[in-house]
């Protein structure tokens, strides 16, 4: 029996809102640029400090984000937000830098099958090709962070060995990368795995900042976030209203919803600086504007703080 | 930084399927007795060993379960399943015993508001009234377990102090009760709270077996289950297809789905003896027969083991 009665968690976590990239790109219907900008402006009012604003990929690959430049240009007055953008190659990096993006995120898969499908090359080849992007960033004083998709399980290959992730992180480190996002792209992670992999990584790479990008495909995203907190991780991605689906499971839940993650963190005393009420107002508006949510719990239930009036009549028994 | 890289969890957990009680009572449409029996028989084939089969309440209070006797009588050949039934009073207990139920569960709330609304009396009064039920059980060699609804938060009163739960457990202990189910009736628990309350309870009441009854109203049920596992708890309730809503949040998710809980536990190496494929077949059939599910993830996503064919064409970039 465990005699330690306290769950030790960090007192603060830093949330990066990813709906403008991961959420919007998952929509089949075109979202007008002004709607995107309106949502980004509403998000800025919630107190969120970081945002993945778009992806500078070829418009034919992801037409949903073909207005990347316009979106970035039109929200440049939001100086309180740290914007980052996803870039697949040097051309994308140059486009991002040209419109003033100060932080780039590289895209990489943990498995060769996923890499071949996404980037048409092996993981190692893809990663070795990052050097010119990193150089370009250095030249312009732009920070470049890494990411590892399907880090906890691959929809094509299944289990991803820990050694594979360690190798990839080592190569990132050699390239001079000091921030790495671990993505559970198709929601295959479990809390024990997250806890143990992060334990290994944080011990072995104490100079690298790891962040978590969690999808709630199998209902374990919040549990995975807690496991990460238990290993001292404080950087998390999430998406307003849970926008962002799973291409391998049509209809399945997408990214963990920002309102669910933030509310749950606050309930445990892990502060984020984000206002839950304002998040809920925004999530409702996003749901209305996009036409659906992506699996938000709080949109249905409201926060724990929202109490109900004591009923006068005897209710049905319910435990 | 935490240097312990292993998450220590029990190797086995015991699941009690509660859809036949908590799920069926939450449906507004009448479920025919033969459908109930068919679902119970399918559940028996999944390998689940315990089931909360019905509630012996007054038919006017919960007409959905007015066929309690008939249901129990018609599945008495399922000798491999340990059936338990919820009973609100001596009359209900006698009805349950008369049809051969060998385990009764008492109903109690953690807060006076919830108790007044459910049982029309204060918590302490309700609990003191249990003596004749326990006596009746002893007389017939029938085990009686306790429960505490809204143990982690009350929709009327909010926060439930740990001291309140300790008092209630002490009174249960004085009554001779050695098994207590802690219910997060309206999904207000968080993993830190679960971990810390269970740490207190298991240290203070080492002779009492605690079990967890979790609702996924705010997306934290699986995380709460993991926190309970981390405290050595091995007894969990869950409901096939997630049946069972939340009367305080219409449309919100109900009990944690058995398929989600069992799948997640197996992914972490916590065995249950239940077959996930058979659970999914049953969950799909339940969804079809009842007309909806109650927030099952696995019904949408399938298990992690269900891999996808490697695509030939380049897919859209997705992290």
From TrEMBL, chains A, B:
<dbReference type="InterPro" id="IPR043594">
    <property type="entry name" value="HMGL"/>
</dbReference>
<dbReference type="GO" id="GO:0046872">
    <property type="term" value="F:metal ion binding"/>
</dbReference>
<dbReference type="GO" id="GO:0046951">
    <property type="term" value="P:ketone body biosynthetic process"/>
</dbReference>
<dbReference type="GO" id="GO:0006552">
    <property type="term" value="P:L-leucine catabolic process"/>
</dbReference>
<feature type="domain" description="Pyruvate carboxyltransferase">
    <location>
        <begin position="13"/>
        <end position="280"/>
    </location>
</feature>
<protein>
    <submittedName>
        <fullName>Hydroxymethylglutaryl-CoA lyase</fullName>
    </submittedName>
</protein>
<dbReference type="GO" id="GO:0004419">
    <property type="term" value="F:hydroxymethylglutaryl-CoA lyase activity"/>
</dbReference>
<keyword id="KW-0479">Metal-binding</keyword>
<dbReference type="InterPro" id="IPR013785">
    <property type="entry name" value="Aldolase_TIM"/>
</dbReference>
<dbReference type="InterPro" id="IPR000891">
    <property type="entry name" value="PYR_CT"/>
</dbReference>
<keyword id="KW-0456">Lyase</keyword>
<comment type="similarity">
    <text>Belongs to the HMG-CoA lyase family.</text>
</comment>
<dbReference type="Pfam" id="PF00682">
    <property type="entry name" value="HMGL-like"/>
</dbReference>
